[in-house]
Each structure stands twice: as structure tokens, then as C-alpha cells.
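Good morning,

Attaching, inline, the C-alpha cells for the sequence recovery test we're adding to the shared suite. The designed sequence is right after.
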């Protein structure tokens, strides 16, 4: 049940991001609230991986380091245009569902994962602290 609630929340946040992206005027994708803050386009590029990158990293089957994994995972979104955002978010939905197919309820509570920036947490808590929070922020 916890697994489904967690998945539902990630999918809900992705769908909110999808909906909000349709409200951005075409001439505002380069808008930056102030110097040093992501532009609207950079924000969409970030959201294109925010829901799936950490669970994907924790569930990968090889020993790829985080920077290599993240670079590979984010390569597609770095060149994304605004009209590619919705299809990329659709791909992310499919990816998140496939990742959750690999996770059990027990994994969410008992599988310990390490954050690339230091510290550890149970997989469920770690997904909440990354995917869910990053998408909603």
C-alpha cells in the first residue's frame, strides 16, 4: 500500500508539472526570475528527470558512479525544446512505473540507499526526499 501511495504521489506531481508547463507563454521560456536562477526552459529540463533519476540510480544493476549516471540520464533533456517536454514527461511516467515494478513494500522500508551527497536512508524515505520533493518544489 505504501508503494502505491508513493507511486501515486510521484505521478500526481508529474501530471501537475505537465499541466503547468502548458501555461507558459511561448515567449517566456528564456525568462529568468533573476540572475543565477534557472530559466523556465532550464526548469523544464530539470523536471524532465527529477522524478526518476534517483530511483533509477538506486535500482541500477551496475556500479556506475552518480555523476556518470546523472549525466547519461539527463543528456536527452539538456537539448530538449519546449514542445518535447510533454513527451519526455510521458516517458518519465513509464520509467517511474517500471522502476516501481522492481520495488517491493519491504524494499521501501528495509532497503538502505546512499545519497550521492552523503548520508543514507530507507529507499521509501529517500524517494520521498528526492523525487516527490523535487517535483513538487
Amino acid at each position: 500500500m505504501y508503494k502505491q501511495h508513493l507511486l501515486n504521489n510521484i505521478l500526481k506531481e508529474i501530471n501537475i508539472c505537465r499541466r503547468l508547463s502548458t501555461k507558459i507563454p511561448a515567449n517566456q521560456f528564456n525568462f529568468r526570475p533573476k540572475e543565477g536562477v534557472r530559466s523556465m526552459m532550464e526548469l523544464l529540463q530539470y523536471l524532465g528527470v527529477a522524478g526518476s533519476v534517483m530511483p533509477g540510480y538506486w535500482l541500477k544493476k551496475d556500479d556506475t558512479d552518480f555523476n556518470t549516471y546523472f549525466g547519461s540520464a539527463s543528456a536527452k533533456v539538456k537539448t530538449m525544446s519546449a514542445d518535447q517536454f510533454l513527451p519526455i514527461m510521458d516517458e518519465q511516467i513509464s520509467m517511474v512505473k517500471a522502476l516501481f515494478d522492481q520495488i517491493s513494500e519491504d524494499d521501501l522500508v528495509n532497503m538502505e540507499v546512499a545519497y550521492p551527497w552523503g548520508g543514507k536512508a530507507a529507499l521509501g524515505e529517500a524517494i520521498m526526499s528526492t523525487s516527490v520533493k523535487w517535483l513538487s518544489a
